Amino acid sequence: MSAGSVAVVVADEIGIPSWDLYELSIPFTVFGKPQPDLSDHWYDMRLCATKGPGQGAAEFGVSLRTPYGLEGLTGADTVVVTSVPDACVEEGAPLPDGLADALRAAHAEGARMVSLCTGAFALAEAGLLDGRRATAHWMHTAQLAARHPDVTVDDSVLYVDDGDVLTSAGLTAGLDLCLHLVRRDLGAHVANQLARRMVVPAHRPGGQAQFIDLSVPETDDGGLGPVLEWARAHLDRPLTVDDLARRASMSPRTFYRRLHAATGTTPLQWLLNQRLVRAQSLLETTDLPVERVGELSGLGTANNLRHHFLKQVGVSPADYRRSFFTHPAPTGPAPTGPDLTRPAA
């Protein structure tokens, strides 16, 4: 099996923020360092800056000077776009000059196209994601979908493999995708050994839904705020829309309309989200059995908890706890804050 050449694009028109630098280091770590004890054929990696060879950007004392410009994408087997300037994402600013054309040309020559995090905006702008399923960091998927309606954006996964075009969610999800490429190119054993060497899972269960904050934005609506706070404090009890509407002194229809306008979701989905947030907190900070977590969060039985976790978060409660557990809550009286191991009063 041959690994081939990898051209990594640095869209460095405005400098390299720390998060982008982290994502840039991922393909360096995976593809840029030969592993002769794992495979006789490793990747030939080159760094290509949009400003041209010899140019670079410095931020936080870090300076990059690349030997290639965008012409380095020519002939590459794989092209990786790690990120694009924030203005391209947040404000719809144009991509750096020549980048979209260079990406289209590389794809036409047969290169496998890969984006990490906001690099998906560059592939989308070049038209390479039209008619395809793709992802990006969950904070930016709504913008990606709105700006490029021909792209089927999935915000629930860590990465999408669409054959010759692959996209990943943000930050560490880029590592998941890069290891997936090694698995495709050099086999599972090499990818697993490389992951072990990097002290990371060879394959993480679930998708980026487990990292999304399920709580809703706070509302300034004085008529809803108190009842929503009351509901959060009584999630262990059976709650209905009629109960909440009555407490807010509204008809169920008015309550539904007001909550949807304030939060963008339905009352039942809002309750489910809050119960999942409570369950996540309990799984992270206590060693309570899943049966008790289900009771305290209002999700009921352990089976019901597992059902909603798998559907909404993408992993089982046990897998979530393995990933995020910190330490059990104190067994004695807590010095500050509420005791989450007991139902709210």
UniProtKB/TrEMBL annotation:
SUPFAM superfamilies: Class I glutamine amidotransferase-like, Homeodomain-like
Keywords: DNA-binding, Transcription, Transcription regulation
Region (Disordered): 324-345
An annotated Gene Ontology molecular function: sequence-specific DNA binding
Keyword DNA-binding: yes
Cross-referenced InterPro entries: Class_I_gatase-like, DJ-1/PfpI, Homeodomain-like_sf, HTH_AraC, HTH_AraC-typ_CS, INH-QAR
Pfam families in the cross-refs: DJ-1_PfpI (PF01965), HTH_18 (PF12833)
Chain ranges of the HTH araC/xylS-type domain: 225-323
Transcription found in the keyword field: yes
Protein name per its UniProtKB record: AraC family transcriptional regulator
